[in-house]
């Protein structure tokens, strides 16, 4: 009987080691998930801010274009001597509207703002995908820990094997989160 207890003791040590390894990977996956979640939130705010700036530029550009068009109508009612001044102002407004369409030197033209906002959205989407992969990996590690713990209590070795297999699944999803978060969509 003492020999049987010794075998169970060694088996329990193996399961305890499995649980410790699963807990380590769980901690790493949870850290990765939190990091990616924070990154996704930051990129979402960045994209929203850039789209708001884009929208403000569009409104200002529309106002300036409308002012130039209204000045054209008003010019016809003015004396001939005022026409050159009005035309200069119209050209200034049109030049401003054109500059706001594309301003590569500052990155604040509508085209540049839209491109920057789309890039932030892509980074956000990649971070969200990584977050989800890490979370699935974390769930696999947690269930693996539960199964391995249950094997100690019940003495059913297959539960420890199932826990170990779930650990492998968890490592797979955590690796996807790190290396290729958009490869698998769940």
UniProtKB/TrEMBL annotation:
Keyword Membrane carried by entry: yes
A Pfam family it matches: DUF4337
InterPro entries in the record: DUF4337
Domain of life: Bacteria
This protein's UniProt keywords: Membrane, Transmembrane, Transmembrane helix
Transmembrane segments: 156-180
Protein name: DUF4337 domain-containing protein
Source organism (scientific name): Neoroseomonas oryzicola
């Amino acid at each position: 009987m003492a020999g049987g207890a010794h075998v169970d003791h060694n088996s329990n040590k193996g399961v305890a080691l499995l649980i410790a390894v699963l807990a380590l990977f769980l901690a790493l996956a949870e850290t990765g998930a939190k990091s990616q979640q924070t990154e996704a939130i930051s990129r979402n705010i960045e994209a929203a801010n850039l789209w708001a700036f884009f929208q403000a530029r569009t409104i200002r550009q529309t106002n300036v274009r409308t002012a130039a068009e209204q000045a054209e109508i008003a010019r016809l009612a003015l004396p001939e001597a005022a026409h050159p001044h009005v035309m200069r102002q119209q050209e200034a407004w049109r030049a401003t509207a054109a500059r706001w369409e594309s301003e590569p030197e500052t990155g604040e033209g509508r085209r540049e703002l839209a491109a920057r906002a789309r890039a932030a959205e892509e980074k956000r989407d990649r971070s969200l995908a990584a977050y989800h992969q890490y979370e699935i990996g974390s769930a696999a590690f947690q269930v693996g820990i539960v199964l391995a713990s249950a094997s100690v209590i019940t003495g059913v070795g297959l539960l420890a094997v199932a826990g170990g297999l779930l650990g492998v699944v968890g490592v797979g999803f955590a690796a996807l989160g790190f290396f290729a978060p958009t490869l698998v969509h769940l």
